[in-house]
Amino acid sequence: MKARRSLLLAATLLALPASAAEPATPPNTLTEAERQAGWRLLFDGRSFAGWRGYRRPDMPAQGWRVRDGLIEKVGGERGGDIITAETFGDFEFSWEWRLERAGNNGVKYFVTEDRPSSPGHEYQLLDDHAHPDARAGAHRLTAAFYDVLPAAADKPLKPVGEWNHSRLVVRGREVEHWLNGALVLRYELGGDAVKAGLAQSKFKDQPGFGEKIRGHLMLTDHTDPCWFRNLKLRPLDP
């Protein structure tokens, strides 16, 4: 039994990106196992290659910078949201992030430039204890489908100032939010839970919101400082 458990654990770690398994590899690089599994880097640790501003052809002149191998959302500078140049359908996206006290950010997916007031679904990143949005309810806490569905109440969120590892999986109509190795939210696009959550959300009058599309990934600009590293994606399209 112990041997079987060890084999299962090893197989799980091989399927995960390096940041989840924590091998002794430099940030923003891929292991050979990751390459074999189809993972690719969305951030090379040196530049914004593959990224641009939302609804613009280039990166914003302020608000974002690359420093010390990190994407930094510069606090107090409004530059606007940034998106991947590419779009994705079914995929697995892995990243690490860090906030300061009372910080707020998010990663959006199914992002379209045709609906600027609500471009896509958001995996919420928040200081769950000090940010005012936390008082609005669990549907606005870290790892929630922002303003629509909450993540698990017992999610393994690390303290402000420490690195958290998140993972987003989109496969068909199923979406999963992971946090520090734990599945904290699973929902079905077009399902009853999503319909009910949308009806009570700020997106209820947005045509097409809640539907699956092939879209960009977005890092949001809430002006609060935030840092990202190890942004990796594995396409899951048939």
Distance between the termini: 35 Å
Shape: globular
The main sheet comes to: 8 strands, antiparallel
Structural class designation: alpha+beta
What share of the residues lie within helices?
10-25%
Strand content: 25-35%
Poorly predicted runs:
1-14, 18-22
What is the alpha-carbon Rg in Å? 17 Å
Average pLDDT over all residues: 92
Based on DSSP secondary structure assignment, what is the total number of beta strands? Answer: 13
- Elements, N to C (H/E): HHHEEEEEEEEEEEHEE
Number of helices: 4
Keywords:
globular, disordered N terminus, single chain, five-stranded antiparallel β-sheet, 238 residues
Overview of the structural elements:
The chain is an alpha+beta fold and 238 residues long. It has 4 helices and 13 strands. The protein has helices at 2-15, 18-21, 32-37, 192-199; strands at residues 40-41, 51-53, 64-67, 70-73, 82-84, 91-99, 104-111, 121-126, 164-171, 174-179, 182-188, 216-219, 226-235. The strands form 2 sheets. Strands 1, 3, 4, 6, 9, 10, 11 and 13 form an 8-stranded antiparallel sheet that branches. A 5-stranded antiparallel sheet has the order 2-5-12-7-8, with no helix packed on it. A hairpin with a 2-residue loop joins strand 3 and strand 4. The radius of gyration is 17 Å and the shape is globular. The model is unreliable at 1-14 and 18-22 (pLDDT under 50).
Short précis:
By secondary structure, the chain is α+β, with helices and mostly antiparallel strands.
